[in-house]
Amino acid sequence: MTDDRTGEAGQDQDAEPSVVLLAEEIRRLRKAADLSHAQLATMVGYSRQYVSLAERPRKGLPSADLVRALDGALAAGGSLMELRERAELARQARRGRSSVTALAPVMATVHRAGTGAPQVGRGPDDEVAVQAPAGRFFAGTTIPAVAFPVSVDARVLAAVPQGFADGPFVRRPRRGLVIGVGPDEQAPVLYGLDTRQARRRLAGAPEQARLLMTRAYALDDLTLGVLWAIANIEEALLDDDALLEDSRGQIAIYADLPRSAVGKEIAHDLGPVSRMWLGSHFCASHILRHTDSLTGTPAFWTREQRGEEASTWLLFAHKYSYLRESRAAGGERPTRVFCIPPDTVKDSDPAERILLLLAAALMESFGITVAVTTAAEYTALPGFVFDGHRNAIVANWVGADGVWQVDVTDTVALVREFADATGYAQAHSVLGAETPGQRLRALADYLALDWTWLARRCAEIGEYGISGLAAPRSRLVSTEGVDQACRFVATVAQVAS
Fold this sequence. Notes:
The longest helix has 19 residues. This protein is an alpha+beta fold. The strands form two sheets. A seven-stranded mixed sheet has the order 7-13-12-11-8-9-10, with helices on both faces. Strands 1, 2, 3, 4, 5 and 6 form a six-stranded mixed sheet that branches. Helices cover about 45% and strands about 15% of the residues. The protein folds into three domains: about 90 residues, lambda repressor-like DNA-binding domains (434 Repressor (Amino-terminal Domain), Orthogonal Bundle); about 90 residues, no CATH class; about 260 residues, no CATH class. The chain is flat, with a radius of gyration of 24 Å.
């Protein structure tokens, strides 16, 4: 068969053994059924390439959605799903994650210091903590929390002590969480609520009233990923607030220049996140100022490869406004290209991959077609906007040596390079599909995310909004992007079904 040239799964010596076992079993069952990759792909409704990747363990663990479909098509009787669950547990153990609650890999579980196990707090002074660890840019922080038992039936109700709404914990100005711990002692479901929201819900209530929580705010890869990002971003921006304002004044002289590159010395006292904000804000303004130099429908090249970087699209307030304005100035439907090589996906945790998908969903919601190239050769390209003819705007802040590098150029060699890159990415995008829903489903497949679960959770979050769990404290942060992205995922998933 022409599509069986990927080699035996067992030859992937560097892959996790449990993932190899799953890949080998998929391959064995497919061959036993005398099916090619293309035939099996038609049966399960996925692309041939994506189905073939399930037999190549070095590409990582296939999504639960795909394995479930393969299990049914190959009459495996649940054995493939069982192998995948074992592989997921092995992967978590290998990366040192807590197995107590199996929450988001990118954040440690709610824990009491020294025990690593979820505990039920009995009063406002009995605190637990949610760790939001450091990343490539994030410095890491801790979200103070108190935890109480909840009863779960038609509602989720937490038994908080009397006077809790007026206590010092919920009146702290910085971020805090009230956590409800479900009744299942073996695998308790945890629910979160921002302390401001908790105070509002208890205001004026009788002393014996319980705190009404929301099923949508179950703590999992999606919600903890958002908390991880917003806590780190906000903490950094609040700490640097005065310095950031001073830096904005210093860079005003560059606003009217078509070309500038500013080193980190102009913001040497700022932390990495604040420099990201400064560079991102300047680059967005630079693009909008020079949009009239473009002569055709623009193609944007963005350098974000992981959820940590992509979360800025969801949480920086100016990025939301920039997407709306750049779409309005773009005329026909523009394209935005990501370069996300397979190794980057393999090295990213599920919560980060969810943030990356939500950033793409936000762009699609504004009428921007997202394309993804997996070709690692393009990772060094700067961020740019190319008009399809002979003009380009360079706007680089992710991975730049300084705070930003911007330009407006018609240099033939550079523009030709941008044209080749965007042309290749659009022609070979792993999201090659006609509709936003199909593209996002394909992105979920590529990122090894469970699309059915994600669409359901996005619908729940979209209905309530994320601010009840992660209310912004900084004027530079907004959750509008998260809410819009979640609602869009839910909408396109419902249309597709």
